[in-house]
Specification:
Layout lengths: L1 H24 L4 E5 L6 H19 L4 E5 L7 H5 L3 E4 L7 H12 L3 E5 L16 H7 L5 E4 L7 E4 L11 E3 L6 E3 L9 E7 L22 E6 L4 E4 L27 H28 L1
Parallel strand pairs: 1-2, 1-3, 3-4, 4-11
Antiparallel strand pairs: 5-8, 6-7, 6-9, 9-10, 10-11
C-alpha cells in the first residue's frame, strides 16, 4: 500500500510539472528591451549581458526578443505590439515617451525594470522629476543609499504568489544594493516579493562604513498590484576597476545571468506578465 501511494505521489508531481511547463510554453512572449549603456561601466556590462542572455532565450525559441537604444520607439503603438517591456539600465526622459509608457502600463502592459531604472536623485543627471513613475508606479521614491562593494546575498521570500511559489530563497549574483526614500512596507499597493535575508548580514565590504549594511529590512524585488509589473534591484555587475588603464580594459568580475536562481525567476516572471498582458489587452478590445 505504501508503495502504491509513493507511485501516486510521483505521478501527480510529474503531471503538475508537465502542466506548469505547458502553461508557460503555450505562449511565446514578445519582449522589447530599452537601454542606454552610456554611463556607469557596471550598468553597461549588465545591459550587454542581458541582451546576450535574452537573445539566447530567443534562439532557444522561449521568447521573441528585440532590444533598442532608440527611445523614440517608445510610442503606444510600438509598445502595444509587445507583451513585456524591459528597462535594462535607465528610464525614458522625454515627456512624450513617458506618456506613451504610462498609457501602455495603464492598459495592462507588462514591465520589468532592473537596478538603476528606479534611480532618481534631486539635482542629479536623473532628477526626481517623474512622480508617477517613482512614487506611484514603483513606490520607492528617490534613491537613498547603497552598499559597496558588489556582493552576493540570499533573498528571502516575503510574499508567496505565482512569481515566487517555487523559490522560497534566491541566491543572487554580486550586486550593488539600493535603499530608498519611501518605506515600501507602508504602501498598500506594493507587494514585496523578496528582501535580503537577515542571516546574510553584513552586506557590502566598504571601505566606507555607511556602505556596509549590518541590519534592517531591504526589499529587493517587488510588484505594484495595481499594475502588471516587477521591479528587481539586481543589475550591477562587479567590475575590475583597479587593474586598468582605460575603460576598454575594465572587465566584469561577475555575471548576473550566471545565477540559475535569478535567471529562472526572471524567465518565469516574463511568462506570467505576458499572459496577463494579453488577457488585459483582449478585454480592452472586446469593450471597444
Amino acid at each position: 500500500m505504501k508503495k502504491e501511494i509513493f507511485y501516486i505521489i510521483i505521478f501527480l508531481t510529474l503531471i503538475c510539472g508537465i502542466s506548469h511547463v505547458h502553461a508557460q510554453s503555450s505562449i511565446i512572449p514578445k519582449v522589447l528591451a530599452f537601454y542606454t549603456a552610456k554611463n556607469d561601466l557596471a550598468h553597461i556590462s549588465f545591459a550587454e549581458e542581458a541582451n546576450k542572455y535574452f537573445t539566447s532565450q530567443a534562439q532557444a525559441k522561449k521568447l521573441h526578443y528585440t532590444h533598442t537604444d532608440d527611445w523614440n520607439k517608445m510610442t503606444l503603438d510600438e509598445l502595444s505590439e509587445y507583451d513585456v517591456v524591459l528597462f535594462l539600465d535607465t528610464r525614458p526622459e522625454q515627456v512624450e515617451h513617458r506618456d506613451a509608457f504610462k498609457q501602455y502600463i495603464e492598459k495592462g502592459g507588462g514591465w520589468i525594470g532592473f537596478h538603476f531604472t528606479a534611480f532618481s536623485l534631486h539635482q542629479s543627471s536623473y532628477d526626481d522629476n517623474w512622480s508617477w513613475y517613482h512614487d506611484t508606479f514603483l513606490g520607492s521614491g528617490e534613491y537613498k543609499s547603497n552598499t559597496w562593494r558588489p556582493t552576493s546575498v540570499v533573498l528571502r521570500r516575503i510574499t508567496n504568489n505565482k512569481f515566487t511559489e517555487s523559490q522560497p530563497f534566491l541566491h543572487t549574483p554580486p550586486n550593488e544594493w539600493y535603499a530608498w526614500k519611501n518605506d515600501l512596507t507602508k504602501n498598500k499597493d506594493i507587494s514585496i516579493l523578496y528582501a535580503i535575508d537577515e542571516k546574510g548580514f553584513p552586506v557590502g565590504t566598504g571601505p566606507k562604513k555607511h556602505e556596509i549594511w549590518t541590519e534592517g529590512f531591504y526589499p529587493i524585488i517587488w510588484t505594484n498590484t495595481k499594475y502588471n509589473m516587477i521591479y528587481s534591484n539586481i543589475g550591477h555587475n562587479d567590475m575590475d576597476y583597479e587593474h586598468h588603464y582605460n575603460k576598454e580594459q575594465v572587465k566584469p568580475l561577475s555575471s548576473t545571468f550566471a545565477s540559475k536562481d535569478y535567471s529562472h525567476f526572471i524567465t518565469k516572471a516574463i511568462y506570467y506578465l505576458a499572459k496577463e498582458k494579453r488577457a488585459r489587452f483582449k478585454n480592452i478590445k472586446n469593450k471597444e
